[in-house]
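Figure-free illustration: sequence to structure, shown twice.
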Amino acid sequence: MAHKLLSLLLLSLAIFLGDMANAQERRVVVEDIPSFENIYRVSAEKTHSGLPVPRFVSLKFGRVNGRQGPSLKHPVLWQYRRKGLPLVVVAEMDIWRKVKDIHGDESWVRSSSLSGTTMAITISETTLRSRPKDTARISAVANGNALLEVGKCNENNWCKVTSSQGLKGWTQRDNLWGAGPI
């Protein structure tokens, strides 16, 4: 009997220590989302594209090179690999656009790689509702970092969104990066 009790106690201790080790391994990484306060604003009449700067755009393709400068001669800093990824155009030069991503990183991409489709990334787990009200029925829950197409946003900052799987709903603009006014 004492042997079984000792075995049970050791097993409980092992489980407890294992849970403690797992708890120490789990870490939450929180990054500040860059603000748009220090971006130089240019009216549409003064840009190459005829569109204002800054403005949100999205990636047209699943692989887009972000370069150090506005030419193919500049080295590739990284490659964006998420079609629909929202970016902010912060500068323009003929066929090149200087963009900023959700992490605040900047690079130059060719304008032909960008789309005017309004896409957004969920900042954290986000509830989608059937109507633009906190009391409306929940139609879906999007994980953090989910990519959603933004239809329209109303005056109360509710945005109608659609997932690539066809799930639709409304969520507050504060839950999204890529849908807000700049």
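We now fold a second protein in the same way, so the two outputs can be compared directly.
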Amino acid sequence: MAIVLPKFSRRRASPGLVVETQPAVNVTLCHEDGLYCAGGELTARWRISRVPLDEVQGVEISVLWHTEGKGDEDLHVHHFQRLAEQQLRRIGLADEQVVHCVLPKTPLSYHGRLISLQWCVRLRLYLANGRDIVAEQPFHLVSQDMARPHKFTSDRVSIGLTNSN
């Protein structure tokens, strides 16, 4: 689960002053271990709190991968959803929302010495004052050969890595 909170000053507010609260953005994956089979389904829940709806201009939710390390860094968006002000007013911010997509078969997550390929669910909150707040929840996309089902618990499937030794 990724919860993004802006940094707060350590100083206490003077009596009588109104303290401005900062928005909180939360993204939770349906698999606690963060492992997903290539070609399988991903469901993530997201929530925005501590911000009035009239201060929100839009929300973007995406499932993407990016590389880090030597050479050029790549980024590819697999799934994208944008909610504009009108849509947000209809659904509101009080309830947890869901994003769902079928994952591709490639590229698989990879963490090497020279390069890494990381998958994540990214939520970007656009505020009326021009600021944006981003939360990312990483996960691992693994081949079906590397994963095996564990057990089914209340709509959630846990996936574990098999030992190849």
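Summary for the second example: Residues 24-148 form a domain with the Immunoglobulin-like fold (CATH 2.60.40.640).
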